[in-house]
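Entry for the shared binder. Reason: the reviewer on the internal report wants the predicted structure included alongside the sequence.
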Amino acid sequence: MNKFRFLNWKVYKDSKSFFRQIILLVKEFPKEYRFEFISQLIRSSLSIVLNIAEGSGKNSDKELNRYISIAMGSVNETLAILDVLRDCQFLTEAQFNNLQQQLDQIDSQLGGFKKQIRQRS
C-alpha cells in the first residue's frame, strides 16, 4: 500500500480546493453568524477532506469504503448548510450554484471510488 496515497487522488485535491474556497467565502460573513453557521460549514467541508485522507490509510477496502461514505455524508451536510445560507441571503444564487456544482463533482468522484472498491472486493 502506498503510504499517503490520498495526496495523489483527484478527489482529495478537489475537496481541498473546495475547502479553501469555503474559508475565503466565510471571511465575508458577519461576525455574529460565524459560530452558528460558519463553524458548522467549515467543519463539514473539512470533514470531506479528512475522511478521504483517513480512509486511505485503512487496511481494508471495507474500511476505506466506510470513510468514503462518511465523506459523502459530509458533502450532503455541506450542501444543506449552503442551501440554508442561500435562503438567508448570505449567498447569491450564482455562488450557491457554483459551490453546488463543485460538491456534485466531488460526490460523483466519491461514488466512483465506492464502485471501484466494490468491484475489487
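Summary line for the report: The chain has a mean pLDDT of 92.
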